[in-house]
Amino acid sequence: MKAAPFAYVRPSSLSDAVAELAATEGEGKVIAGGQSLTPVLAMRLARPETLIDITAVAGLDQIVDADGVVEIGATVRQRRVERDPVCSMVPLLRAAMPWVGHREIRSRGTVCGSVAHADPAAELPAVASCVDAGVVIAGPGGSRSVLAREFFTGAMMTALGQDEIVSAVRFPVAAPGEGFGFAEIARRHGDFALAGVAARVRLDGETVDAVLTGFGISDRPVTRAVSDELITVVRAGGSESGRMADDLREALSTVADEMVDTDGDAHASRDYRRRLFRTLAARELSKAYHRARSDIDEVNE
Questions:
Q1: pLDDT digits over 51-99, tens only?
Q2: Which PROSITE patterns does this chain map to (predicted)?
Q3: Is 113 helix (H, G, I), strand (E, B) or coil?
Q4: In whole angstroms, what separates CA 22 from the centre of its chain?
Q5: pTM over 0.70
Q6: Nearest by Cα to 216 from 241, 252, 177, 187
């Protein structure tokens, strides 16, 4: 199939783009990379009256390091993020990028576009949620910021108004003593994840702060604090036994069962996804902990 007919505009400023979108009264769609929207248009699952192409909007193609965050503009390609040295200050983002589709898709797709699309099996919304990124939103009333964990409200549903545009996502720079882990299981590389996990561990003296975010397991990224589970395993000597992932798998059993609430489908049942997620979560949380510990040891040397 081919897309239904639509009008096309290409504004050169963010204010003009917002105005064009508002003028459609909910019948317009914003396009930047088009890697999510174009297939939907081709299958006629969406029939917008107008496409607002923001690729010519000045200033949206910037990656900025300031005030402890890396701000990625709405038209920055995923492939650029994958290679830009500034983005190495957000290790979890860099770790996730190779899992996003294929290289050709990442050459056109944008980080902000993936976040705005809010596919529950997508990697970048999960990363944003795990590190507590801020989603910058431009609308007729000006700019506002929403934490990623509050931005996603359901499957392909967000806190974005019909006359608003995601103009940037702000990822916090990794602090000393932070470690990360990321993995997913898919039928083939580039396919949607059957289950995936992003893990963050922050060590500060005797304080342990651990977070897991799952994707492909619910109607949105699901984030839970798992500090108590990690501390229990560490205090029991699990970090020294070489069996930390096995111990964590048992400790995370209840948490994993609660986080995975998606119905089964042709690809995997709910119970199978729970087993996948539990295994991935334990492994990546263990990696994140040891990376955080190694970072502290390097700083103290």
A1: 999 999 999 999 999 999 999 999 999 999 999 999 999 999 999 999 9
A2: FAD_PCMH (PS51387)
A3: helix
A4: 27
A5: yes
A6: 187
